[in-house]
Fold these 2 entries.
Entry 1:
Amino acid sequence: MRILLVEDDAEVARFVRRGLQEAGHTVEHAANGRDGLFLAASEQFDMLVLDRMLPGGVDGVRLVETLRAQGNRTPVLFLSALSAVDERVKGLKAGGDDYLVKPFAFAELVARVEALARRPTVDAPATRLKIADLEMDLLSRTVTRGGKRIEIQPREFRLLEHLMRHAGQVVTRTMLLEKVWDYHFDPQTNVIDVHVSRLRQKVDRGFDKPLIHTVRNAGYMIRAEP
């Protein structure tokens, strides 16, 4: 396999690189997050092994989040001295596939690398979302319902995309604040209600069956069924 190792500790990097090469892998090394992100985004690798805490203005979590947002599905194994459960969860939620706490036995590192390599290849991410006669093209950034083009603003597009990706599920206001507005606090405004109202006017007005529903005291849901 061709592996990208992103590790700022020179001694750890030499140790891991040498061991992976002895195990038969080709290893490229980046010493900071910025260079690691550039290599991961511009070249083809079979796996990424990266530290959580990285210099260069891009830490491991941000690096993986950026790659996943770009559609890069390369398996990622985090190496980190941060052993707390919430830190491991943070790395996995960012898009990491496995998490190994330092210090570690090299035999375990190789075993985890090989285990990730055996996982089935992930299908390419969907480029179209569809609920009943409502369709969203993620590449052209267009929305249609019943074959008719719906003109929506960028924020409305993100809102609708999040609802469609969670079709049939209640999406809370807190979730929308974090995923659509990038707020990690409650701004104490009715911005969500206003945008949902506008989106509902564009998506449901003129159609017999509404798709966007308010779930009292919970949030919102998009579904085809009444």
Note: The chain is about 40% helix and 20% strand.
Entry 2:
Amino acid sequence: MEKIKIGIPRGLLYYKYGDLWENFFHELGFEIVTSPETNKSILSKGQSLAIDESCLSMKIYLGHVAYLIDKVDYILIPRICSLYKKEKMCTNFQALYDIVNNIFNIKIINYNIDVEKGVTEKKAFMKMGKSLGKKRKQIKNAYYRATRIAKRKKEHRLIKQERLLKESSNLKILLVSHSYNMYDYLIGKVISKLLNELEVDVIYADIFDGKKIHKKYQEISKKVYWTYSKELLGSIIHYYDFIDGIILLSVFPCGPDSLTNEMCIRKINNKPIINIIIDELTGEAGLQTRIESFVDIIKQRKEKEAVINNEENN
């Protein structure tokens, strides 16, 4: 008997929860099919399916869903309304199931997290497992094992980044963006590649110790209530003294990012900062020019600081 195939779109929340999802379904005995890195074909398909007002990340996500349709039995489409009390997620994450369900004629595996209403991640996964015909003990064991694996991988990434901060003498630029933008092949990976070619170390704002950044976002704004935006703002404050510059990366037309990025630009005065907004028409040549200019500005600033420090010491 063939295993049931569950498709996972490589977009949006995949870059935050992909390890958890893949290991959870693997432990339950399902076959997992993950869509490939974003390419122009996937983007084009997503553009044809989305409304014009959709952000680039949503268009890409819909392209990944379309890629999986004829390759799997079910497609995972999560809905996350709130992860903590008095906080909210972007409306795209709250409406994701409804958007996909209204565009495609597919079988969807869904879970809903809404801590404001008492629905935790564990409860959501237990309910999802039951809908797939699995027993409670099996689901519970699969969830705990998957969370442990995902946690270890997250800790490994954090250790690797902290080691880079301590041991590398290269320029260090903090890339501030949501995981689904930073690690997407057509969005953030382009910028990381350009920075690496300039011998700049990229520090990722989504890699952090949650205990260390807790409430640090308040140094920039106390009124932000989007969970992922709070995390990124807290990460900026946490890494501030260890970096040489900041790149704010967002996609058009993201409402939460447009607000939080403006807050950062107004609050951060002593560190070079640039705001880059990507849409489907953005070309790599233009990005390269902006990135190179930004890096040159940082280098010139550091050279001036070195001269001033040398004169003061003499």
Note: DSSP finds twelve helices and ten strands in the chain.
